[in-house]
User: What shape does this take?
Amino acid sequence: MAAFVTGSVHRKVPAQWTLGASGWFGVDALIAFLAMYAAYLLSPYANVLAGPLRVPHVSQLSASMLFAAIVAVTSQIFGLHNPLLPRHFWPMFIRSLGSALLAIGILSILVFAALYSRIGRFILTQAALYTPLTMALARVLVWKQSNQRKQRLLLLGAGRTGHLVRSLIRQSGMPFEVVAFVDHKPELIGQSVGNNAVLGGQQSLKEHCLTLQIDEVVTCVGGKISDDAMRELMECLSLGVRVRDFANFVERNFFQVPVETIRGEWFLQADLELTHPFYVAVKRGIDVAAALIGLVLGGPVVLLAAVVIKLESHGPFIYLQTRTGLHDKPFKMWKLRSMRMDAEQHGPKWASGADDRITRTGKILRKTRLDEVPQFWNILRGEMSLVGPRPERPEFVERLAREIPFYSQRHLVKPGLTGWAQINYPYGASTEDALNKLKYDLYYIKHSSPGLDLQIILRTIGALMKGSR
Assistant: This one.
């Protein structure tokens, strides 16, 4: 590449109008607090409530704080903190309304049944109106600001990886704008990728960033970056331009790891804290508590399902299937049987959505995920966790490990009843689906924490409420 520009250049770095899950968590809690507080102030009984009460009534501050905490949780259940959701007002308003109504229901039960107090119906109605409308409008405001000043990207490399970045951005609707590509290959210079030109090395990266007002350079180069290119990337940093490699960019903005482009060094640089004593202890404690609650509450369901399964078809109602667990150790996973007894007479194969091997009862069990209730026993035994990559059968693991790079590394953590891949990718039964799910599994392995586990659990509740598997 050409020599880079010398001298001191000052450039105003634009603000990023984006909020992560933790940011929206705080915003939604604040909106709910203010909505409930305003509902009290605007109530025709505000003066009465401020004085001595004949009937116990929750105070304005207590009700607002409780409602804020509950909405912060229910907004997670309805996926409102997911930045990859389609950016349209009405779908977001419907999600916000569902979150607010669920929060109102939980608050009412908590106040009436647990605190032996009350909140006026007029106050609850107002809060149920103000909250979703304000939550949806807040998102529209952030969307408009981010779309007015999209982050301008310069992609270093116009090959397959550069095309993949451009495709991800176009599909997601995220506030990024690919301005141009830069590549040193003569056959690519002067060409175009879609409506983006491929620039050459007649100018330095620093000059391209100044001319095109670039906010971020994403390196989409396979293999090691040359020393000359690295020096120019350092020059870009001096302008206030962010510089990220492809894997880091995708991981940060799309919450997955691009398996096709990473090398083994990724695992060495990821600084995995898989055996941190605090996290391990907290996770195991949550697993045991959840397993006990699940077995107690799910016991009657399992007994009822067992009767129906036995009436519909012969054979046991519990199905034990070998799965691959932590560090490739096999274990027997418990499930309510949802298929015919002769379902695998021709060998194991993935289940599909319209699988004729599934019984009528099995369709209901799989749709509601009640067939997985016995897996709480696996969790109690320590073979599984509440959250983690879904365990796969050894027959499929062996084949997928040959076809997909780093597939075996998903066994660095315990398999889970639910996981990051399950809430971000639809049910699938192919090698391509396994590859796409692995991208999310590796993201979870790198970023696993109590906070991420909680987010997955809450979003799984939302998925169950929609009846999705």
User: Anything to note?
Assistant: The radius of gyration is 26 Å. Residues 1-8 have pLDDT under 50 and may be disordered. The longest helix spans residues 277-312.
